[in-house]
Amino acid sequence: MSDKTIVSTVLGAGTMGAGIAQCLCDHGCPVTLCDLDPLAIDRARERIDFSRKTLESVGLQTHEQSQRGSALFSTSCVLDEAVSESDLIIESISEDLELKCDVFKRLDLLAPPGAAIVSNTSGLSITRLADATNRPEQIAGFHWFNPPELVPLVEVTSGEKTQRGLIDQLMAFARQLGKQPIHVRRDVPGFVANRLQFAVFREALHLLSEGVVSAEDLDRAMTSGPGFRWSFLGPLRTADFGGLDVFHSISSYLWPELSNAASPPSILGEKVKEGNFGTKSGSGFYDYPLVELNELIERRDRFFLALTKLVDEAR
Q: Can you tell me the distance from the alpha carbon of 11 to that of 233, in angstroms, rounded to the nearest whole number?
């Protein structure tokens, strides 16, 4: 990577890859979205078109910006062609470590010598991915959150041999894209945000399993309580505002009561066994008829967009 316009390739045309590619080209960076499946490419184009119309409808993007982004966006089903002139390759394929290692090994052979290869993994080892290449100093984590064109956070993770200069470049690049990056200094499983998210998820499943609360009320407790405050303060500043002495006292009697489960509880395993995967199957903790799901996704995105505008104005 260098200070010139960064030419990027996004590998994987699923929800994450499509949204990342959209964000890059709509912020002036040439990008090729690569997937071996032409149908995945077609679905990605449809998703990007719909997302741009939503952004335009709430005034966060002009039609001219969308058109300029379209001119910088290309697709490919041929990996060696897609990465041959890239400065930055963003891998966004399935969360399978061995598969990713195989892909990184191949990318190492195909990509230009100076290209950085980064992963959108949610928490797999960046060091393991780097060890599959002959350029470990040019490998890093670059983890976005769904939907990637809307959620501000990007985690930039160092592997054991990642050059600090690459981290600085990725942090600056993420800010250029309108994101709020954080540097994950140690390559720990799950990085930062997912460790926080799954700590809450574990306790949520415990409360549900124990019959303490319904799924609807549990979600409302988060969105109207801690989640409402955390969106501005975060958990540590919330503790500062509440008083560390108070939080210490509560921690002393509450922590022994919290779930310390080391494996997923039966309430989750049973749903998976029954094929109830959530929105992708039409049922999870809630039911998702197709028409209602599409309406829910649109409401979610408009909420995120309204929140984005409010946050931008408040900062």
A: 35
